[in-house]
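Predict the 3D structure for this chain.
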Amino acid sequence: MSVVGMEEDDRRNITRNMGRLVDETNIDVLIPKLLEKGVFSSTMIEKYLPNAGLNVQQRKTALYLDIQRRGPLAFRKLIASLIETKHYSLAILLQPDVNIEAYSNRLESVARDALPGGNHHSGTTLSNLPEYYSEQFQNQIGELHRAHPNAKINLNVEPLRVQVKYATCRSDQQSSKPHLTVYPMGSRPKGYFLLINNIKFINNIHEERFGAHVDDLNLTILFQELGYEVIPHKNLKLSDMKTKIEEFAQMEEHKRAHSCVVAILSHGFSGEEPGSTDFAATDGLKLSSSWVLECFNNYNCPNLMRRPKIFIFQTCRGDKADYGVLPLQRQMLRPRVVSDGFSTAQSRTYTDMLLAYSTLPGYVSNRDTYCGTWYIQSLCEIFMEHACDTEIQEMLMMVDSKLKHLIADNGTMQTSSFENWGFQKFFFNPGLYDDSDNSDSAAVLE
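Done. Predicted structure below.
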């Protein structure tokens, strides 16, 4: 069977400009777009991926040679993909008369309200996809629309730009509920933020987490602007994960701060203990969430006793995919909060902990190769907009409210959750600090 290639003029245009195309193309950003538009199949793109045994120049050369044999529409789809991935100069190089501004405006209007970064009541729904998507992709989305007529899909390829709104008044100095304590949050820094993000795994024992670098950047900017000192680590083996977590838990600096945050981002699995989660280290070994939390209990971590400890776990918690249910069966899934039982004991082992999970026990967690994981992107957007005046548990419910409208192109959905282990009311108070110096006595709840 003969292979129909692109138009001769278009093919020569690519060949003539091969040098610049190879030098300036970000292939890892471009490949998902070409796959999405049906230029290549998932099997075909394997030869262009980092683990294919070719260096990056060879991978890009092979891609531009092969695309010339992908049919008469391949050139037009290549131009669209270059524009959507911000390769504007290359798009103009191949097609000088292309109207970048008009095309970009159309893309922005399509993506402006797409979830998880936009308004739930307007924008791109599954029945309103741009015409430049492949016929196969449009048919697939059409089926999703019939099953989920109000759902939306994220078409934005530009990661979230984090910019925190600062508070105008302190929210931690009063509570309308007499039995609820509000944690003080005025130290400088507000606390320390341990960020562990495992993206690449040794010998490809687990799939590389493409897009996870966006989560890393977003969380770093978010918590820096919230007033935290960020301590980041990437791609750790199990022994290194344990060492870094133990060292962080024992830091003397916690005595002079009002809170701490721990975030672990990796592949994950259902833990052996009910409700627990195992995180994948880069050497393929597993770290239990129960072990992590034990490092920060009041016995092992006295420097953080009576201080709020927030844990953000972005990971799968099993292998089940959530494809939703029929409308008559649909129920509102609310994040679960574990009560402390109104205990009055002064020496409970686990207190002042808030556990934020990207998904429910047993289920997978979704990741966008352009914008990062659904959960971290939604969390960053909610926190940067509302941390100025909103309590953290209310914000976590707002995060889940964002997620409930989002659906992937394979039909999966996602529900986040959080657990409250003796955790009181917490406001970040971004931009506002105590006038006095940070003494140990000011940093704890009496």
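The two ends are 79 Å apart (CA to CA).
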